[in-house]
Each structure stands twice: as C-alpha cells, then as structure tokens.
C-alpha cells in the first residue's frame, strides 16, 4: 500500500504536533519536579543552617562560661596567695618591730630598776630594813600581777586603768612607808639633839670638838633625808616608766590577732606580759639584797 506525498506530510505534521505536545508536558512535569525539589532543598538547607547556628551559639556560650569560671578561679586563687604572702610579710615585720621595741624598753627599765634597788640596799641598810619594802611587796605585787589576765571580754581602757590603779596603790604604799621611816629618823634625831648641849656643857674644856660632834649627826641626817627624797623621786619615775611600758604592751597586745594574743588556748603556756616585767635577774638581785640585809 502506497501513501501519497500529501498523506505522508499530514502524518508527519500530526506526529510533530503530538511530539511537541508530549515535549511540552514533559518539560512542564520536569519543571514542577525541579521546583518541588528546589523548595525541599531550600527548606532542608534552612533547617540545617538554623540547627548549626543554634548548636554553635550554645557551644560558644558553654565555652565562654567555662572559660570565665576558670579565669575567676585562677584570679581568686592568685589573689588569695598574694594576700596571704602580704599578710605574712607584714606580720613578720610587725613581730620584729615589736621584739625590738620590747627589747629596747625592757633593757633600760631593768637596768634602772636594778640600779635603784642597789642604791637603796647600799645606802640605807641601817635606816630602812630592806625586808620591810621589797621582798614582801614584790611577792605581793607579783601575786597581784599573776592574778591579772588579759581577756577579750575586758575593755582595754578599763584594763589599763586597773593596772595604773594597782601601780598607784603600790607606789603610794611604798611612799608612805618611806615617809614613815623618814619621820622616825627625824624623831630619833630630835630625841638625840637635846643630849648634844648637855655633853657640850660637861666638856667645856674642848668646845670645838663637841660642836663638831654635834653638827655631824645633823649633817648626816640631812644627807640621808636628801638621799631618801632623791630615791623616792627615782622610784616614782621608774614606776611611771613601768606603767607606760605596761600600757604600750597592752596596746600592742590589743593589735595582735586572737591566736597570738591568747596562746594558752592552743595548749601552750607562756608567761603573761605583766609577769615579764620582773626579770629573773631583778628577782635574784632582790633576794640576794634581802638576804644580806637580814
């Protein structure tokens, strides 16, 4: 069966139209699928992007917090070590200065007290018995000083006032006893003075010798009285210096921390600051002087 040229041309035209229609449908189908895939891909990309951003931000926040915490801990530890080292150096300097100050004050005071005691025992052995002034008073004063304890419940001003009052009482008792001895000496001189004219009247052959012998006790008594006055003044000065030393020690004791201010709480017994004023050398000198007087 043979087809004509027109039939073949029309058949080709029909086939071309169908192919063009199918091509358009395929292109449209592909475009729709590509658009759907593009939308899905963009949504997936947006979701992944948001997840990545949130994860990175959370990790950055956690890392920042950990870094900040670590830096704060390092700074606090460094600050604590620095403060501790500074406090230790300051405490060592304060202890050294306090030891030097105590040594510079105690040495002259001990030497002064020792010199005063030696002068008293050397110049007044016959007029004033040493056992009347020093051993009993020192033992009693030592007992009173031993009973005084520095505690945090007592105000420092009140404690200093009590110590000053105790020192004033001891000074007043010592001064009264010395004045009593001076009065007794004056009375003894007054009683011996009337005997001088009678002896001079009986011994008219030698008036110059009698006058010299009568003036000698008066001069000795005057010198002894002057010595007593000087000794009283020296003892008052020494007691004043002792009181100022106690006040200074109480002030330094107040500045110390609780562990160093009360070492007995840690189980270690140390002599109190008030007990340290009577050094072993002073007490031994006092006991030797009292023994020689007896």
UniProtKB/TrEMBL annotation:
Compositional bias per record (Low complexity), positions renumbered to this chain: 200-217
Polar residues composition bias: residue spans: 282-294
Disordered: annotated span: 194-219, 263-294
Protein name: Uncharacterized protein
Organism: Dictyobacter aurantiacus
């Amino acid at each position: 069966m043979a087809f004509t040229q027109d039939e073949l041309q029309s058949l080709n035209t029909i086939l071309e139209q169908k192919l063009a229609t199918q091509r358009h449908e395929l292109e449209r189908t592909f475009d729709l699928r590509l658009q759907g895939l593009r939308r899905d891909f963009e949504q997936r990309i947006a979701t992944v992007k948001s997840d990545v951003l949130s994860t990175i931000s959370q990790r950055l926040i956690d890392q920042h917090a950990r870094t900040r915490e670590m830096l704060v801990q390092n700074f606090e530890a460094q600050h604590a070590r620095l403060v501790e080292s500074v406090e230790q150096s300051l405490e060592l300097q304060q202890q050294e200065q306090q030891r030097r100050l105590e040594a510079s004050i105690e040495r002259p005071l001990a030497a002064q007290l020792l010199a005063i005691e030696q002068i008293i025992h050397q110049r007044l052995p016959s007029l004033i018995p040493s056992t009347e002034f020093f051993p009993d008073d020192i033992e009693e004063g030592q007992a009173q000083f031993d009973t005084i304890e520095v505690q945090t419940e007592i105000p420092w001003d009140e404690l200093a006032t009590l110590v000053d009052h105790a020192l004033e009482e001891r000074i007043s008792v010592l001064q009264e006893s010395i004045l009593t001895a001076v009065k007794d000496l004056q009375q003894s001189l007054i009683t011996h003075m009337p005997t001088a004219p009678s002896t001079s009247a009986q011994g008219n052959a030698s008036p110059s010798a009698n006058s010299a012998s009568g003036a000698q006790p008066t001069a000795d008594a005057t010198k002894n009285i002057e010595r007593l006055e000087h000794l009283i003044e020296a003892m008052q000065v020494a007691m004043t210096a002792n009181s100022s030393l106690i006040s200074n020690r109480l002030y330094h004791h107040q500045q110390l921390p609780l562990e160093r201010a009360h070492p007995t709480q840690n189980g270690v017994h140390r002599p109190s600051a008030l007990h340290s004023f009577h050094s072993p050398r002073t007490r031994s000198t006092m006991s030797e002087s009292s023994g020689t007087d007896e």
